[in-house]
Amino acid sequence: MRALMWFRGDLRVRDNPALDAACRAASKDANGGVVAAFTICPKQWQAHDWADVRVGFMMRTLAELQDALAERNIPLRIVTTPTFAEAPKALGWLAQEVRAGALYFNDEYEINEQRRDEQVQAAFEKAGRAVHRFTDQVVFRPGEVLTKDERFYTVFTPFKKAWINHWREGEPPEVLGLPKKQPEIDVASDEIPQHVSGIDFTNDLAERWPAGEKEAAKRLDRFVEGRLADYKDARDLYPMDGTSTLSPYLAAGAISPRQCFWGALEANNNRLDSGSKGAATWISELIWREFYRNILVGFPRVSMHQPFRTETRSIPWRDDEEELAAWKEGRTGYPVVDAAMRCLSATGWMHNRLRMIVAMFLSKHLLLDWRLGEKHFMRSLVDGDLANNNGGWQWSASTGTDAAPYFRVFNPFLQSKRYDPKGEFIRAWVPELAGVEDGNAIHNPQEHAGGGLFARLDYPEPIVDHAKARDRVMEAWGVMK
Ligand SMILES: Cc1cc2nc3c(=O)[nH]c(=O)nc-3n(C[C@H](O)[C@H](O)[C@H](O)COP(=O)(O)OP(=O)(O)OC[C@H]3O[C@@H](n4cnc5c(N)ncnc54)[C@H](O)[C@@H]3O)c2cc1C
């Protein structure tokens, strides 16, 4: 039987469970063959705030995938539907046209994606076509690692412990190799579109973010052989290149989480939470990714603009367009915040420590609704990912899963001094401050640039006073100072 393999956020041929199964099944039939499909949904992508740079990266990843599929005689068909709603019909027509008897895909966990998949599955089954679904985005399907009373975990550390036990006690999935080459079939590939209606990815930072699974594998190897060992100490020092920069590749599915876990395990004598501190810490970050996918499935409200902690619905968020614009454009007068936001606009990416600093600044110093920041990040990030982005924003805004018994408000000046002591990152992104010398002035110029220097810098005064902002947010939350 011919198989239709529907690619989405899993744009690779290696270690792709649905593709592997489709190829195995089709190989059993002399008249089989596999046809691949990808659905472009411009209106849906816009409604989900997918960044131009992310779509551009995805389309380039798709082109790489098409070449890799062609080597295995698998044509790639592109189907454009404005939204997810038309996907069942459009894929049904395609299946009919290419005479596919079964559909294969890897699960996705956002609420609209889940509904789309259920509708596609129902339509295919109604038409007498089998549907085969697989777990790919995570090592263990969300809901597989539960508390003793069968609930989703709401706190990371116990989840991590249980996740590691589950790996040890069960049979963790291995990395799959290349799928079987298929016989040639009479279906031609479509061209990858250079344009997607309403999305402009002419400047998609192709040099900064080369696409495809080969590039992803290279990055993983380089990281595991090099920076992994020092990851625990270097991961927060954002001027250094201490992290893997694999997030865009994980988000597009150019690499699988299994490939990442096994890469780290091989470098760490198969140990998950002992051995090299660097490897154990990186593995822990990968488990955060698994955790946030469990939160998405266990608490679907987070996919629908609702806080994880429902009691935080009553927080009196302020409304200030000018301050929001200053934050987005990097004009807050807080050098570390401005440097990070300008870096995001220019590169589509931001270091994790900086994501936490700017998210806390927006939601706590400015007391602006975290959803505004979440949206801006999604619209800007090459690695935009609902589960991680929502998880990170809600953690930072204290509306999410943070287990800390106190109310966390970072002091941006101190964070800056601690993680970028010489102010290198600030000088790189805020040219107005490039001439400021080392010391406190680069982190907090208004307070420390003496001798009239601050007046001469073409740099704004802080839009909010740190101590007053701290008091204001504590009061808004009804938290004891
Ligand atoms: C406010 C905020 C927004 C975020 N938005 C996103 C987003 O849209 N997409 C995204 O992939 N990550 C997001 N993160 C998580 C994290 O910042 C990035 O995954 C990380 O910076 C990517 O860099 P890296 O690939 O070099 O990570 P590494 O440090 O090398 O980690 C490897 C991988 O582990 C996962 N990971 C690492 N840290 C986290 C974390 N805190 N939470 C969940 N997964 C993690 C990522 O998939 C990452 O690629 C966000 C964090 C915050 C605080």
Describe this structure in words.
The chain is mostly helical. It folds into 3 domains: 3-136, Rossmann fold (3-Layer(aba) Sandwich), CATH 3.40.50.620; 137-175 and 212-298, Alpha Horseshoe (Serine Threonine Protein Phosphatase 5, Tetratricopeptide repeat); 311-477, DNA Cyclobutane Dipyrimidine Photolyase, subunit A, domain 3 (Orthogonal Bundle), CATH 1.10.579. The protein is 48% helix and 6% strand. It has 22 helices and 5 strands. A 5-stranded parallel β-sheet has the order 3-2-1-4-5, sandwiched between helices. Helix 5 links the parallel strand 4 and strand 5 (130-134). Helix 10 runs antiparallel to helix 11 (277-298) and helix 15 (370-380) packs antiparallel against helix 16. The chain is globular, with a radius of gyration of 24 Å. The protein starts with a strand and ends with a helix. The model has no long low-confidence stretch (mean pLDDT 96). It binds flavin-adenine dinucleotide. Residues 235, 243-247, 250-251, 285-286, 288-289, 292, 351-352, 355-356, 359, 377, 381, 383-385, 388-389, 391-393, 396 line the site of flavin-adenine dinucleotide (FAD).
Characteristics of this structure?
5-stranded parallel sheet; Rossmann fold; 22 helices; binds flavin-adenine dinucleotide; mainly alpha; DNA Cyclobutane Dipyrimidine Photolyase, subunit A, domain 3; single chain; Serine Threonine Protein Phosphatase 5, Tetratricopeptide repeat; 481 residues; 3 domains
